[in-house]
């Protein structure tokens, strides 16, 4: 099968697979008869796992990158009933293997998975059992390292009836209904230098000063929360499902697409000694600008990967944050406007006309709003705590200017808003705004300081709330822009709790069906449901959607 390197969008790539599947019925039968080169004694094998990936003819594909399938194609694939359905499914699953040069080779299968694979494909091809139709996509999922509600070994042993999403099937024929687990390719940006951004020995937000009785401690914007996000991804194994993207520093030219020469000059001058971003509350140590460049460049790298079709979506775990930085100054821990720089950069080099930015940080995304204030091709939508930070911005009346009027949308929510309020705001404001705007790319300013334990927020969100919000946005993206979603990490200062909130969002991006169970329980706190005064705030912004 030959797939053009220009097949950059998920829909084009799935169409290419459908036009020329390399896995034919003949190859399937060869599979089930254990005649695959490099896999001797496949059936019933109990030997150790192969240390190298065998050379299998049908999984060698002349493409630059592995074929991936986005969430936007999942419904179409589930509805497919043509005879070569499973051939295409197997070909797609095989395409998630390693890349060797410009060749894609099949993944390494453990011995028990190879045995199950042979049995499942034999059943599917020969029509001897409906079990093959149910098991086959799950076998490929196992090969990709996915966890399933009901494992293949359990099925082979006849331990219990199959389950779908953890629930037993309702009738005796339900197991014959084909269900495909759609592989999601999620890019992931992180660099250890992000944890080396030095914000000093502040006591919370105040600089240490013994004359004022302020003991040295640590700044609230310190490495712990984001470092623990990354480490949780490693410990849970979720990182194995992500495609690592290496960040690179943003250039002067890219930074100056957003910031003034004066702001860049001040940061450059203080880079060797340490200093402040410009507002008196954005400290950085030696080499701070170098790390800030790497954060902005990480956002650019992730945006490029999504737009070029190398991944379906991406998460950039960058530091320092960026959504408060304005063109002529840093602000609120943000030295450079990471998202704004990334969007200005990729809009020059890639075919992306309209971008929607959905900011869920508890603080108003004033920097992003300022940069795109008069731009009708960028929707700047911010959900934040009312009159918090900056205290004089984020009002419903701030709506853009000139050609950009109506494309700035603010939803200031009352302190104490919980899951019910945020989910209702997403349904009634965020999703309708996205549908009216019809973006080519959706960028989420992923701040997690609206969580129930955050020291810099007074909201009550939980991982479940973040998961549901992410799922709604991702579903909208599947309909509007081929699933192209980029999340760029912003705030979140409860180091023990933020990792579980971020993990929930990344699970949704990666298509994980069995989420990691977080150890805290705040979903049953009082006032989590939508309150009348919160509903009134949502209605005020809802009334402005007609101007988009």
From TrEMBL:
A single cellular component GO annotation: cytoplasm
Top-level taxonomic group: Bacteria
GO biological process terms on file: epigenetic regulation of gene expression
GO MF term set: histone deacetylase activity
Pfam families: Hist_deacetyl
Histone deacetylase domain: residues covered: 219-508
Membership in a protein family: Belongs to the histone deacetylase family.
The name this protein goes by in its record: Histone deacetylase domain-containing protein
